[in-house]
Fold this sequence. Notes:
Blueprint: H1 4-13, H2 15-50, E1 55-59, H3 63-70, H4 83-90, E2 95-107, E3 110-115, H5 117-123, E4 130-131, E5 139-142, E6 153-154, E7 157-158, E8 175-180, E9 192-195, H6 196-202, H7 213-216, E10 246-251, H8 254-266, E11 270-273, H9 275-328, H10 333-374, H11 384-400, H12 402-410, H13 413-419
Parallel strand pairs: 3-9, 5-8
Antiparallel strand pairs: 1-10, 1-11, 2-3, 2-7, 2-10, 4-8, 5-9, 6-8
Amino acid sequence: MNPLPLVAAEMRAGRARHAAIVLLVALAVALGVAISAQDRALRAGSARAADPFDLVIGAAGSETQLVLSTVYLQPGDLELLPARILGELQGRDDVGLVSPIGFGDSFQGWPLVGVAPALAGHLAAGRLAEGALFARLDQAVVGAKVALGTGASFTPLHGMSELVDDEIHHEGFSFTVTGRLPPLGSPWDQAILVPIEAVWWLHALPLGHKVDQARLFPSGAAGEPDFAAVPIGPPFEPAELAGVPAIVVAPKSINAAYGLRQAYRTDPATTAVFPAEVLVQLYSLLGDVRRLLGLISIMTQILVIAAIMLAVLGSLDRQQRQLAVLRALGAPRQFVFLTIWLDVALTLSLGAGLGLLLGYGAAWLLAQVFGQQTALALPVTLGWNELRLVAAVIIAGLVLAALPAALTYRRSVAHALRQG
Length: 420
């Protein structure tokens, strides 16, 4: 005898009850799937954003704030590094790339970040999405999500503001966009990269180079400056430098990286960090929260399945007469057992499968919201952790479904008919 038609008929007759059970299981499973998938996406996205930054050196202070400000462009107060540090780094044979980073200005909410041309090229992996790198003090390269095309000109604002206020515009100075970075999946997609010398110029600081004033102001001090007269990028002259918030360094080897980190960690004026190490520390803090949420998710699933078992046991009374009649007509006990077992097992399995889809959808939606706020691309995928969670719920459902089936299996036909 085939129990499936009877199971299908029971599901149609009790569609509201079955739908409620499926939804409860789905929500419980979705919570666990969303927590697990979102955690992995956050780790992968933040690690990918930090990949181009081998070593970051800043003034003595918080390593976490240094990484958040330089790698993830989160506003924060950073003490300035002494100018001598930049001079030392650019003279070392074990350093392949050295770029000071400067902050403080913006345009329509997009932060201006002053860098050396080599760092802009490093972020682009040598290939811009369009255009070319900046070659003059008044040129800029924009991130992939910045709504400025090549050839566009703009006047920066002092500070991070989206308000148009003449008092905070850097009047008399404008940048021309020469190129666009490829998508990086990081906050740098929403940044405008300009020569670090431009940041110094806008704030009336030394430009890091000896500049021929006659070439800079060919029409006299009151005339328009010719920014082609200002060199950009290393080598900088320490005597012409002010302090900088941070320096990004690309060592030539792993040994050089550890040597540089040790050297500038022991200097009382500086701190040096591998961004990946700081991420590991942050992950450990997030891991405690994730474990707590995971425990809550597991407890929720246990409570939901327990409640469902009680509801199923309660609903069996309604089916007793029908099953007793089938038994009286010659249906074997095994048929009754299989009918009840399939009903419960299919309902729980459908809920678990739907929960997998809902959990993935919730994690994807959270990633989009988070990405809009931080410009950090979070790659949401379903991995073994999520599949194991769903498999565990399904297996638990298959096992627990035997409980009501066994109770019905053991009940006598005469007793069931009398109750009916």
